[in-house]
Amino acid sequence: MTQQEIPVGRPTAEPFVPATTDLGELRAAAAGCRGCHLYEDATQTVFGEGPARARVIMVGEQPGDQEDRRGEPFVGPAGKLLDRALGEAGIDRSLVYVTNTVKHFKFKQAGPGKRRIHATPDRVEITACRPWLVAEFAAVRPTAVVVLGATAAKALFGASFRITRSRGEVLPWPASAQNPAEFAPTEGFAVATIHPSAVLRADDREQAFDGLVADLKVVAEQL
C-alpha cells in the first residue's frame, strides 16, 4: 500500500505495518502511516524510542505538542518529569523504551494564537493505532511494561481497568481476549501508574510525584 492510500472501512494501521521486528524499519514505515485521520493535522508520526532490547517498555497516551514538533516521545514537560522520576526510582532512563498508544498528536486549537490543546484519543483511534504498539512489543520483547495513565491502561488491559484501583501493583502481562499472544512475550509483568502529565496538573505536585516514584520503584524491585 502506498503512503497516500487510506484503508477502506474500519480505520487501522495494519496495512502500513511491515512484517519485521527491526525498529528502524518500523519507524520508517510509521512515518507514512495513514491508518486513521489523525495524521491529517499532526506535524508528523511520533514513534517510540529506546534500546532495541530494552528490559522495560513504557506506554503513554499520545505525543504532546512538543513531541509532535520534534518527532520524539516524552521530550516535553511531562517527559522531563518522567526522567526525574525514573532517576529517583533507580531505573536507568537510557535502558527504557518509551512509546505511546497513539502515534499522532490529537488536539484542538483555542485561545489567542490558536494554541494547540491536547484532546484525548477515542476508542476508534486507539484501536486503529494498536498494530504499531503490537509491533513494538514484538521487536523489543521487554521484561516489564509500565502503563502510564488511564488511556494506555484501558488500551492494554481493557475498558474496565482503573488506575485508581490497581496502580503500583505487579500485574500479569497484558493479553487481549481475542489474541492472548498479541503482546508477546507473555513472560513478564506489568505495572500501571499515573501519567506524568497528571503530576503536572495535580493540586499537590509533590505528593503526586512521590506516588509516581513509588510505583516505579515497584518496577525496579522486580527487575
From TrEMBL:
UniProt keyword list: 4Fe-4S, DNA damage, DNA repair, Hydrolase, Iron, Iron-sulfur, Metal-binding
Every Uracil-DNA glycosylase-like domain range: 47-217
Statement: the UniProt record of this protein carries the keyword DNA damage: yes
One example of a Gene Ontology biological process annotation: DNA repair
One GO molecular-function entry: metal ion binding
Keyword check for Hydrolase: yes
Annotated PANTHER family: TYPE-4 URACIL-DNA GLYCOSYLASE, TYPE-5 URACIL-DNA GLYCOSYLASE
Stored NCBIfam families: UDG_fam4, UDG_fam_dom
Family: Belongs to the uracil-DNA glycosylase (UDG) superfamily. Type 4 (UDGa) family.
Protein name: Type-4 uracil-DNA glycosylase
Organism this protein belongs to: Virgisporangium ochraceum
Name of encoding gene: dpo
